């Protein structure tokens, strides 16, 4: 039996040391504690991490009022009740409440209440099973980990190395989610989830948004029709969507006033702020990776149990963005649950199951990653796209259904537009992936995630009856389209 | 091979004769046609049935604007944009559009385009495999069915035999969904889905609704907490919810002016209209059941393939409300798909599979019936309640989660209140049932339906990752609560 008394002591020796107290690190810590292990959780910034303060939480807090008003405006009889614009001030106060004013004491207290030692400072690995923390009061604490060190330091926004980028004071996801002034004109550079969500939010809050996409399609990791419909939605909301353009330099003399973006076609865009949402970099530059033979600043290469490859004795794990398997809070938390259970089982000498879909392996990272973008229309997908499935060597058939064919969709929103696709493995007759775009799709996705991760056979899906008249009846149309 | 040419002729001999052209009858007809069979579809009223014109479609058309406005009002920043009431006139026009002005020619044309003979008139069975239709122009058409007669005549609202009921001109679901005047005061008698949905709709459209429930709980077929939360929601919307009361007589002298309801506690309720939503009766009183040894006016007792018991040679089927398995459009359509495939397979001499979850059996009727009530909060469930599971002899554990614990729920609606329950079969470690109540639950339910009907093991559900921050993350809390 592990010694539970150690967990609440200030000992420098722990069963598990976790670097980074975002949702992923917290979940590793919590699961480890649930297995009776002592845990130190090191955080150099805010307990709760990027997701709680500059990611999912504030962005959704800002998006939901915009979507709720759009949803009401799409329904005859409700539209007439909506006479005003979204109240940006009220939205910012809402956002502030959900990020608890960027005060992390509540989350820290919660962890302490679970018997987890939260250590504030910058943690660096110093050889096997050893972490040195430079604490806020300039002390050094040396932590040793009997069973595991888990890196959950996450990622940060990448900024391109462009002329003028420094004096442009460009926004990243941070300013885009913690600002409380609505820029009259906002330029957004990017084509992924942050770009489309922030375009939706800020346009809804009153900015005139210009979205500059290097590619000709938005949301390039989803099926192509998703980006097309999301672009249409953004345009209808008033966003100036420009695709196939790159920023080559920026001008903001003195770092104040409007910023001018020069594009590769030599045209210019002038805005009051510019947001770059062009990708993420791992926060591994200064965590001592070199002391264990790994390259600082690299994504950490892990196996399906999130053990870092190339490190002896299996004491080093990495979960969340930092392992680059799936840069999504929910997927990191999933990895964290598996890791916590794996470390707990190993510590107790219990058997572990790292076969696919076993109790100690993050199989869904490969086969069943869900994602929702809370733009308007909402975009949601799980598993493999048609292309991904084919490239992986599966023999598949994809079938599409326009959501206008589903009574529940039309009742949800007059003039509903949306589309759904399933990708069926023809050799096994189960789903490899599903994609939905349209208003009100966010919660419908989980039905597909159960089907994909659960490998529910098509034959059985015919017995999974969707309620009439929900949008979920799209499942019937999809099955019918597959039967042909 | 069946003779396809027969299907589009006016022959009186068909492979399949279907009584009732609601969604269920249409689906039987469509599936039978897809198998190459000739089909006559007999309808005495509107092609599309109760659901299209006085049920799901108009009710949801009226409810959605009310819910969309409520949803927006629950979100800071959106609330400020909603200054007016729901526009009842616009809602009625919306409803009229979705019921196509009670004109069924579009649906009839669609069926004709599939090669189905729609025969308008009152059909009566006259001995084995024979149906006589009294047509609109007072002619008689004798139809014979080579393979099957399928009864899909549905149900109608039951009215209690109370003093004064006739002159009260009580509303049933029909007037409640086709009226275009908002009664100043509306009394609703009932405690099920129609009662709570119509209370939600009409209160939202401007009526002062009094809901009179005989029981002490609303929605008695769902877990008890659902009715409690729905009652709370109705009260907050302004509905006067009175439980544990029965109407003993009604007074509406001359059949005009206000109607007074006398309750069993001798108190009185005066309203401008009264809606009775106290149950359904099968529409089997005048379809010739006596000619084949069955009791007119009875629900039709069927096996899991929807063949009517007590009739020789297996030519008589019944699907939808009329067989009383599950009085829900979607469940009737499910039965219809199975029946259509069964009749098609038998006609072609192909093997049939009527084992549980086979291709020709309505297993989900017993184990995995989903239901959504579009009230506010929305109420959704699938499979067995805790009580039902225990009474069926399962060894179960039910776990609950308050939705306030789910970040995605709070982000969806400020001050979110709701609850979820799963009922786990302890011997098999899969779900027997799930229940959700709260705003925005309607589409989330289908994830549970996949899990219940798919018998996805709890161990695998841990790999079914819900997106952060969706409400679907309640699944994590439920699994954690089950693990304990």
What would you note in describing this structure?
Chains A, B: Keywords: FAD, Flavoprotein, NAD. Chains A, B: Its cofactor is FAD. Two copies of one chain form a homodimer. In chain A, the strands form five sheets. A five-stranded mixed β-barrel of chain A has the order 1-2-3-4-5. Chain A has a five-stranded antiparallel sheet with strand order 16-17-20-19-18, sandwiched between helices. Helix content of chain A is 30%, strand content 24%. With 484 residues, chain A is of the alpha/beta class. In chain A, strand 8 (208-213), helix 8 (224-237) and strand 9 (240-243) form a beta-alpha-beta unit. Chain A contains 15 helices and 20 strands. Chain A has three domains: 4-48 and 104-156 and 282-364, FAD/NAD(P)-binding domain (3-Layer(bba) Sandwich), CATH 3.50.50.60; 173-278, FAD/NAD(P)-binding domain (3-Layer(bba) Sandwich); 377-483, Enolase-like, domain 1.
């Amino acid at each position: 039996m592990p010694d539970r008394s150690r967990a609440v002591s200030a000992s420098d020796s722990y069963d598990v040391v976790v670097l980074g107290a975002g949702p992923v690190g917290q979940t590793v810590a919590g699961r480890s504690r649930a297995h009776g292990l002592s845990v130190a959780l090191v955080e150099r910034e805010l307990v709760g991490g990027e997701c709680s303060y500059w990611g999912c939480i504030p962005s959704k807090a800002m998006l939901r009022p915009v979507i709720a008003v759009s949803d009401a405006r799409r329904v005859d009889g409700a539209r007439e009740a909506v006479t005003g614009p979204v109240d940006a001030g009220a939205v910012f106060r809402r956002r502030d409440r959900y990020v608890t004013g960027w005060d992390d004491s509540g989350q820290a207290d919660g962890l302490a209440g679970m018997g987890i030692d939260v250590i504030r400072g910058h943690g660096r690995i110093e050889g096997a099973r050893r972490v040195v923390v430079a604490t806020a009061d300039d002390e050094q604490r040396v932590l040793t980990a009997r069973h595991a060190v888990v890196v959950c330091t996450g990622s940060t926004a990448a900024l391109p190395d462009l002329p003028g980028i420094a004096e442009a004071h460009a926004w990243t996801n941070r300013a885009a989610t913690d600002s409380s002034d609505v820029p009259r004109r906002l330029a957004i550079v990017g084509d992924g989830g942050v770009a489309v969500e922030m375009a939706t939010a800020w346009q809804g809050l009153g900015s005139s948004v210009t979205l500059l996409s290097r590619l000709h399609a938005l949301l390039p990791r989803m099926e192509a029709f998703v980006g097309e419909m999301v672009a249409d939605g953004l345009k209808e909301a008033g966003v100036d969507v420009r695709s196939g353009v790159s920023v080559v330099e920026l001008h903001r003399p003195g770092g104040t006033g409007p910023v001018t973006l020069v594009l590769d076609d030599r045209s210019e865009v002038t805005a009051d702020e510019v947001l770059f949402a062009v990708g993420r970099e791992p926060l591994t530059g200064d965590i001592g990776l070199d002391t264990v033979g790994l390259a600082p600043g690299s994504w950490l290469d892990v196996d399906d149990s999130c053990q870092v490859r190339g490190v002896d004795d299996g004491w080093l794990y990495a979960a969340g963005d930092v392992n680059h398997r799936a840069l999504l809070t929910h997927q990191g938390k999933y990895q964290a649950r598996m890791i916590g259970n794996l470390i707990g089982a190993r510590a107790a000498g219990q058997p572990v199951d790292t076969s696919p879909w076993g109790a100690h392996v993050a199989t869904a990272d490969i086969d069943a990653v869900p994602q929702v973008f809370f733009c308007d229309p909402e975009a949601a997908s799980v598993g493999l796209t048609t292309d991904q499935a084919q490239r992986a060597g599966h023999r598949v058939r994809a079938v599409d259904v326009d959501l206008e064919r589903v009574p529940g969709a039309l009742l949800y929103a007059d003039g509903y537009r949306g589309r759904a696709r399933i990708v069926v493995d023809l050799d096994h007759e189960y789903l490899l992936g599903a994609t939905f775009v349209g208003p009100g799709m966010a919660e419908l996705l989980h039905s597909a995630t159960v089907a994909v991760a659960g490998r529910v056979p098509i034959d059985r899906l015919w017995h999974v009856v969707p309620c009439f008249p929900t949008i979920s009846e799209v499942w019937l149309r999809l099955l019918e389209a597959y039967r042909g």
